[in-house]
Write a structure and sequence with these properties.
It is built from 15 helices and six strands. Strands 1-2 form a two-stranded antiparallel sheet. Strands 3-4 form a two-stranded antiparallel sheet. Helix 6 packs antiparallel against helix 9. The radius of gyration is 24 Å and the shape is globular.
């Protein structure tokens, strides 16, 4: 077993990230890659060994084989579990299902110090699943011999996920739930916030001009183009950031039909499941202009400031980023640009918050939309376009274009919101 014990008489556990060793260091090949998260005891700076071993088992620490955000999320989930164990002086290898249920109940009554809201049930569920995965591995390796289940059995009662309609859609695959997890009282579409036509036009103006419009508007076009891909093709922000120039240069736009759809297959997707996306011809034309002009300018500027090998990615850092100009764009940069444009456009909403220290309620104005809402807007547009064209099964088209593995995922997410959005489309709100 592992000698290091999480819990009893331990000080604060924190999340750290590997900084990476120089390539000429003799230990470089055996070190964690830069950005890989792990847990450290904040008192004696010892690595929390069981967590590190599980992380490296679950997320292979080889560049290109893991996502920094995925590893970090898992590390923060287990960091919270470790702090819970330390608070109640419980050893990690002596816990049972009752302890996990107590952990769940404690989160149900806590206010997140980050969001100043009660913990979302989806957050609680994710943390519990991460803990269960840790102990499943620990049991298989002989480090844990307790009775914490290595999987959660679903209820005997199976409820259809669609309780809002009848007909063929109500016969979609059922969903099973477990008594172990908290019941999510939020509506399924609480986080689905498609943009209205008015909001999209306001956002476009803030994001910048299209490449063909830069004769009278000198702002960069990159962020506008990234948003156009999100709303016209349904790509996630990391999928947009991972597009390569060949995805666009291989396409031939139709000058006589700007709305013609041109297929392109992409592989760098969520879950690495390849899918075919359709680019509007007018967008391909604008993207190729970006490659020939703005992108080339950024790479030329980057070369003058030390850029050695230009990336193959479609979108690159702009001239304003100075020494990073011409390098591959990060998904976070595109998300941040969209966030700032939403705020600049005045698209905000007030969210009720609770101060975790005083318990006082207050309101905070936040951005009403994120980059991911462009994907939601695409889904709503596509659904109504398919319905208008006479397609009796529009959900299957939406599922395929979004890249969802299961039809239930698509319908569960958008079933209720599409009817509300139809009114906004008619009124132009």
């Amino acid at each position: 077993g592992l000698a290091f014990r999480i819990g009893r008489d331990r000080s604060m556990i924190t999340v750290a990230q590997a900084i990476g060793l120089p390539m000429n260091d003799p230990l470089a090949s055996d070190s964690l890659p830069a950005g890989y998260s792990f847990l450290v005891d904040d008192h004696d700076h010892m690595v929390v060994e069981p967590i590190l071993l599980w992380l490296t088992y679950k997320f292979r620490p080889v560049r290109g084989m893991f996502r920094e955000t995925t590893v970090a999320n898992a590390a923060y989930d287990l960091c919270d579990w470790c702090r819970y164990l330390a608070r109640y002086e419980k050893d990690w290898d002596l816990v049972d299902q009752g302890n996990l249920e107590e952990y769940r109940d404690s989160m149900l009554n806590l206010i997140s110090p980050q969001t100043h809201e009660y913990y979302d049930c989806r957050t609680i569920r994710r943390r519990m699943l991460t803990v269960i995965a840790l102990y499943k591995w620990a049991k298989s390796e002989g480090y844990y011999h307790g009775n914490l289940p290595d999987q959660i059995e679903p209820d005997d009662v199976v409820r259809p996920f669609n309780t809002y309609s009848s007909g063929p859609s109500a016969l979609a695959e059922p969903r099973k739930d477990s008594h172990m997890f908290p019941t999510n009282t939020r509506a399924a579409d609480d986080r689905v916030r498609p943009l209205s036509s008015r909001e999209w036009h306001l956002l476009m103006n803030e994001l910048g001009p299209l490449p063909s419009e830069r004769d009278h508007d000198l702002r960069p076009s990159r962020d506008r183009l990234a948003a156009e891909i999100g709303i016209f093709c349904g790509l996630r922000v990391d999928e947009v950031a991972n597009l390569d120039t060949f995805h666009i240069l291989d396409l031939t736009p139709d000058p006589t039909n700007p709305h013609a759809m041109i297929p392109q297959r992409i592989t760098k997707t969520k879950g690495l499941r390849p899918r075919t996306i359709l680019f509007p011809s007018h967008l391909v034309f604008e993207l190729q202009l970006y490659i020939d002009h703005e992108r080339k300018e950024c790479i030329d500027f980057g070369r003058r400031h030390g850029l050695r090998k230009p990336p193959s990615t479609l979108f690159v850092n702009g001239i304003a980023s100075r020494h990073n100009a011409g390098k591959a764009i990060r998904a976070q940069s595109l998300s941040r640009a969209c966030h700032e444009a939403v705020l600049s456009a005045g698209l905000t909403h007030t969210v009720p918050k609770i101060d975790p220290d005083s318990g006082e309620a207050y309101g905070l104005k936040l951005a009403a939309h994120s980059f991911h809402d462009l994907r939601h807007t695409f889904a709503c547009w596509l659904y109504h376009a398919e319905r208008k064209s006479g397609n009796s099964e529009p959900w299957k088209v939406v599922q395929a274009r979004l890249g969802h593995k299961y039809l239930s995922t698509t319908m569960d997410t958008y079933l209720r919101v599409v009817d509300e959005y139809r009114f906004e489309m008619k009124t132009g709100l």
